[in-house]
Automatic annotation (TrEMBL):
The chain crosses the membrane at residues 12-34, 78-98, 105-123, 143-165, 177-202, 208-227, 248-265, 277-297, 309-333, 345-365, 372-387, 393-412. One of its GO terms (molecular function) is GPI mannosyltransferase activity. One of its GO terms (biological process) is GPI anchor biosynthetic process. This is Integral membrane protein. GO terms for cellular component: mannosyltransferase complex; membrane. It is a multi-pass membrane protein.
């Protein structure tokens, strides 16, 4: 009992340390560094204030909390597109007298801390404390964890979805239904939990309770649908309003192909419709050939020098391609990671990841979808298990994460579109 208590305390302390240290990087970047930088084109000057945490989707949540939901089926953008749990919790915290900005930050940040603690506990139970530390660090330091600090839903969704997956994995079906319903009331990718639960229930012959919990997961979004019917006469108002954000659904093949061209040839070259400057593709080619050379002769060079060499080349490539490289890597690298790790992580998390990807690739978008990928906790588990076996790469990845996290924080504080 004493040993178990000590393990729990160590897990909570580690998760808190990862949460605090990564949030400090964000705050320093947004509040101390960004205000000293020149105002970028299309952006605004960052200030030492709560305003740096409040932009883009945050504005919509403030409208919901202040005025309630609005919707007209005219193809324009309305607040009904955003699911209700996050603004409801913010409103509840505001009843204590706190303003919107502080209430929103508290809900998202504390939810994220709870998600990290829960993830650590789950992975330690299934594997060991070393794997739990790496999975927790991966989730905390991923550059997109910025959205778990600003007034967005990422922290809350990670808490609810992780809790639902963990409960189902441990066959605690009342908890599965509760956390699953909260997930679908927070973000639409929560719907990916339902087919994942149903398939595992069938494959493992889990019984009636598992099926009931699977279907109960949909209750969060069904209650919101009932609200939409009662208030606007349209049960699918939150679906129909998506026309205001995108013209069509389906796989955005043209957008992804353009992004790959920008990474390999350079954005300036692609935008000018012709290769007039060979500098960028030449550098890309040298980096690619150098990486292939290092890998081909890795036995002669040695694993340590090979690893560090590839990491340096990666940093050079990122300095050229920037956010497009991060976006492509997170999205399509995540698909590869899910497949490679399919026999190593809980089966329900594998299915949840793939069903979430089906939703993502059917949005008709290339922007913002990496935030949905970050919300797939399965990927942090998978990457944590891999770097647990290869800690040298783990430390290099965490270093890169910290660098990009700081850059993303500065971009967001300047009100520039990030994701």
């Amino acid at each position: 009992m004493i040993k178990s208590k000590n393990l729990i305390q160590k897990g909570v302390f580690f998760a808190f340390a990862m949460w605090l240290s990564s949030r400090i990087i964000i705050c320093i970047s947004m509040l101390a560094i960004a205000p000293l930088l020149p105002v970028p084109e299309g952006g605004v000057a960052a200030t030492f204030s709560w305003d740096v945490f409040h932009s883009w989707d945050s504005v919509w949540y403030q409208k919901i909390v202040t005025f309630g939901y609005e919707y007209i089926n005219d193809g324009k953008q309305y607040s009904i597109a955003f699911l209700p749990l996050f603004p409801l919790l913010i409103r509840a915290v505001m009843l204590t007298g706190l303003p919107f900005n502080i209430a929103g930050l508290l809900v998202n940040n504390l939810s994220f801390l709870a998600a990290l603690i829960l993830l650590y506990s789950w992975i330690e139970e299934r594997y060991d404390s070393s794997a739990a530390r790496w999975a927790t660090a991966t989730l905390a330091w991923c550059p997109l964890s910025l959205f778990c600090t600003v007034i967005y839903t990422e922290g809350l969704f990670l808490l609810c979805s992780t809790a639902a997956l963990r409960a189902f994995d441990k066959q605690k079906y009342a908890q599965t239904a509760f956390w699953g319903a909260l997930s679908t009331a927070t973000r639409s990718p929560g719907l990916a939990l339902i087919p994942a639960f149903l398939i595992v229930s069938f494959k493992e012959k889990r019984g009636v309770k598992a099926y009931l919990a699977s279907f109960a997961t949909a209750s969060g979004i069904l209650l919101f649908s009932l609200y939409c019917q009662m208030k606007f006469g349209d049960a699918l108002a939150f679906v129909h309003v998506q026309k205001g954000w995108r013209e069509s659904a389906g796989f955005a093949g043209e957008g992804w192909w353009l992004m790959i061209q920008q990474i390999t040839l350079g954005q300036t070259i692609v935008d000018s419709s012709g290769i007039r400057y060979i500098g960028y593709p030449l550098k890309f080619g040298i980096i690619s050939i150098s990486a292939c050379f290092l890998w081909r002769f890795r036995k002669q060079i040695g694993s340590k020098k090979t690893d560090y060499g590839i990491f340096v080349l990666w940093i050079l490539l990122w300095s050229m391609a920037q956010e497009n490289l991060v976006r492509i890597t997170i999205i399509y690298g995540g698909v590869c990671l899910s497949w490679i790790s399919r026999n190593k992580i809980p089966f329900v998390t594998v299915l949840y990841g793939f069903f979430t990807y089906l939703l993502i690739f059917n949005t008709g978008l290339t922007l913002s979808v990496e935030r949905y990928v970050y919300g797939i906790v399965s990927l942090s588990i998978a990457l944590g298990l891999i770097v647990n076996r290869h800690p040298r790469w783990g430390y290099m990845i965490m270093s890169f994460f910290a660098l990009v996290l700081a850059k993303f924080s500065i971009i967001f504080s300047q009100k520039l579109w990030l994701s």
